[in-house]
Amino acid sequence: MTPGRPLRVLCAPDKLRGALDGARAAAALAAGVRAAGGTAVEHPLADGGEGSREVVQAARGGRVVPVESVDALGRPATARYGLLDDGTAVVEAAEAVGLAALAAAERDVMRASSAGLAAPVLAAVRAGARRVVVFLGGTATMDGGTGLLAALGAGVRAADGRSLGGGGADLAHVASVDLAPARERLAGIDLTVAADVTSPLYGPAGAARVYGPQKGADPEAVEELDDGLRRLGPLLGVADAAGGGAAGGLGAALLALGARMVPGASLIGDLTRFGDRLAGADLCLTAEGKVDASTDTGKTVRAVVDACAGARVPCVVLGGTLTPDAHRLYDRGATAVLPIGPGPRSLDEALATAADDLTAAALAVCRLAALRPG
Amino acid sequence: MTPGRPLRVLCAPDKLRGALDGARAAAALAAGVRAAGGTAVEHPLADGGEGSREVVQAARGGRVVPVESVDALGRPATARYGLLDDGTAVVEAAEAVGLAALAAAERDVMRASSAGLAAPVLAAVRAGARRVVVFLGGTATMDGGTGLLAALGAGVRAADGRSLGGGGADLAHVASVDLAPARERLAGIDLTVAADVTSPLYGPAGAARVYGPQKGADPEAVEELDDGLRRLGPLLGVADAAGGGAAGGLGAALLALGARMVPGASLIGDLTRFGDRLAGADLCLTAEGKVDASTDTGKTVRAVVDACAGARVPCVVLGGTLTPDAHRLYDRGATAVLPIGPGPRSLDEALATAADDLTAAALAVCRLAALRPG
């Protein structure tokens, strides 16, 4: 075997949670590609949750517009949206009412409200956006989107006619929702919602039971919130739609406003024009922190593997942790599935060296892929 | 890129200490090669220490001959030698006076003797062997080879003329060594000694200081043994020769008998005819438990990388643990250096899954290597 011409390699990782965001992961892969003599294109991806707006704008550019708003606890805060050149606005719920912006002791799902998401959405509409994409995931809220709806002008009322402002504790009192004023403000807007989960609004797989605990809800609060979301579902007219439970029920509220819900990973692929970048690539490298059974059911890496298979571009998957399920990706057409790290060690050690490890793995992979049977 | 013809892959790992012997490691690699559609040849290697006789006979066949002898503590035990078809006998010191054969509580370097190595060597000579190869390493002894010398007929005496039988405690009393009777019994024999270390007999890098503790010597015993070995060196006429400290000083005793000392890894390569196997291979996979700075200074993997570079066969190194030094192998011509395991986890977990991990890594590597730039 002899080396061929330089490989053209598309570096398209998701974030490695707790270690690297998508851009840093792509840069680390690209460093390895270049060390092996290849040509690297950095194309970080996301699953529709945190980091999605940034990833879209890294690929598409456009303006980043700050908007005065409130955080999930109602305190003044700056949210933002991105405005792409084709008139599409991208808004990330986690950048408005995110969990990561709160100290651990501040997490309070009974109080947290999605109201702060309204300001960037309305600002984008006022700025002339014809399409608004909302990325869900990573919010501090469990209010079924009632905060957002009220802030958009919808009537969210208790049985005695009193207006409710949002917050998990209000769910027990919601008796009626008048969506018309909010729908009017978004009239003519193509509203798209990207979710990385398919949880319904309530029930055993619903928002409160699955995501309540990680947002700070104790078992009693989980039950109260699940009851409240079950009460809200029929009022929104979306009952048990898949993805309704995304972002503490924001999914259901946006569906009620006429939004189209799409899987986050494939939407990110479309918005970042991943397919165009794939044409002409000799090889695609993708990566995530943990490659497991959930990877096979719709995460970024699975979307990359599918797109590569369709485009007949070899695809190598690198995982910080691989479970045995990771190898299902071979059935989907992955060329190789490889661990990133150098062997037995603690999780902290693995996180600390993730960039070097990715670079090293990409270097190794590219040297291999550049071989041709003689 | 499109797949090429099936790859012909030589699977040539060292043992993965604590997990797999060389043969099992080669089989695990071969399973991955075959899963990727390649043709695998299993060629386990060793560094001249434990497992060396087995590896040589796996490649060369010949007879395995059991010999009644004694273990390092003088108890009746069966040693063995291998007799190859060309008249070469291979004897592994660890199979005669090995540390692994003793319970932890039995380890006693002051008492342990290399005498038990004499029986298989003499049996091989009696059986007509013209060349005797002794693999050092892995012994329970620290007697400077005095036990072996005495058992071969050499006069090992105290100042009062009393014969000493070997054992670390005797070193303090050795006043003269008459090698002639032992040399006579080995007359006409081409004696080759393979060592995987370059320690001299005594001193800061000597046998007692470096290897005493892992054989059970406490700090006081280490000093006593080092003094004894320093006393023995001039009596053997080999003083501070490199490798004299191998196997508790057996290296020095065999050098004194006229043996030629060679690095274990390259001798194993010669004896197993690794070069012949390399001709015609598209790719070579090698592996060891820990790839670190010591790999670059003469272990099996380094010898494989060198041989592959000479034969222009791509070589991929897989390590259970990779330290940053592992990447020096790229400078030696390695095609790729990859971790075996699936990420952060304990050493015990890594050891338990080593075979599956190797298979998975080999599969991935071969799929990559089978690509050809389009």
From TrEMBL, chains A, B:
The biological processes this protein is annotated with in GO are: organic acid phosphorylation
Q: Which UniProt keywords apply?
A: Kinase, Transferase
Does Iron-sulfur show up as a keyword for this record? no
Superkingdom of the source species: Bacteria
The EC designation for this entry is 2.7.1.31
Tell me which InterPro entries the record gives: Glyc_kinase_flavodox-like_fold, Glycerate_kinase, Glycerate_kinase_RE-like, Glycerate_kinase_sf
**A Pfam family it matches:** Gly_kinase
Gene Ontology MF term list: glycerate kinase activity
Give the UniProt family note. Belongs to the glycerate kinase type-1 family.
Which PANTHER family does this UniProt record tie to the protein? GLYCERATE KINASE (PTHR21599)
What protein name applies here? Answer: Glycerate kinase
